[in-house]
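Worked problem 6 (solution included).
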Amino acid sequence: MIATAPALPSPVPNETAFALALGLLLLAPLAIAGLALVNTGLGRSRSAAQAMLGNLAIAAVAVLVFALAGASIAGASGAASLSIRAAGKSWDLLGLGPFLLGGLGAAAPQAQLALLFEFVAVAMTAMIPWGSGADRWRLAGGCAAAAVLGGIVFPLVAHWSWGGGFLAGLGANFGLGAGFLDAAGAASVHLLGGLAALALVWIAGPRRGKFPKEGLSTAIPGHSAVYVLFGCLLTLVGWLAWNVAGAIVWLHAPLAALPGTAIGTVLSASAALLATLAITRFRFGKPDASLCANGWLAGLVTSSACAAVATPFESIFAGAVAGLVTPLLVELRELALSIDDPSGAIVVHGAAGLWGLIAAGVFAAPAGQLLAQLVGVAALLGIALPLVYLLFALLNRAIAFRVDPDGERIGMDLHELGGSAYPEFVLHRDESYR
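Solution. The predicted structure is:
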């Protein structure tokens, strides 16, 4: 049935809050820039230019497809939507807004601000699996996958949690806290992006030589730790802006609560980094730079879920847990499950996003909030993961994701762009191809 989605509580008109949120959203793309550097640095040097160009192209495709079609599905609170009635309750499934951003000029400023937030969110969502497919994922396949994420999957999840969908309505319909909380995209961006990365590596398979026949894992280190670590510094700036803007746009947080969100973001990332540094120092004798970067990002992802609802001590605890488990899950993923994920996105975005959503349910005040968070996580695992895997599998039949063996051997830069990212340097030959 076609109905009007229940309207979420509207913020009191406040020009200061609106201007602040707009300014923060103009800074939030620094998180995307940092992620692009991390994705590039963790891949091989002979694929660096293709990796960076892919980050730009994928973000562009995702934003354009979302603007042309996906925003209609994402909808907005109080707008027309498609819902079904079951068990005496209305289940809002998807939005039915106009295509091509029709009526944007007449929309309320709050709705336009939410759309800008979703532009940044869909770009990051599409970029997350790109790092997991490093050194073997063709640019055409990456852009096609971004179109699927931007036009279908992300808008669905965004509607469920941000557009007045059934997850947002868990509070009103079932008394589960304030409904599913996803203030800064821990579910709609990071958990979804991590699940998309998992689907991608299942379909594309590992890089050649990563897992020898005898079952061992071959270390293929990233080519630039400087890119990775500088990218982490950039992400902090973008994430601070992103989390605070999310608290304003989706939680309608008062101005007095915003410094706490920023403080929680910094504390979560810091605790995660130090926890990862300590555990890698203990396990390997020396800290591991790439794993520490993964720990830092995992702390930021965790903060996207709970920084707006957690006390400083709770933010430290949530970040420390993320930092402790990240290197352990990376090792489990690689050695036990033979999953090749150069950027670590499955753990950094998927697992940390899941943990952050659960932590938000524990820390938030309303009774039943934890159950609401668990229902939201179950929806993504049970619906979004199979959907994105099916769409990626069908897409792979039309536009092959993986480059041919010769292209992987010479590097994605030469194969797809006709030139190297570092033309003045002689790149070392990969012995695993002999």
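Discussion: The radius of gyration is 21 Å.
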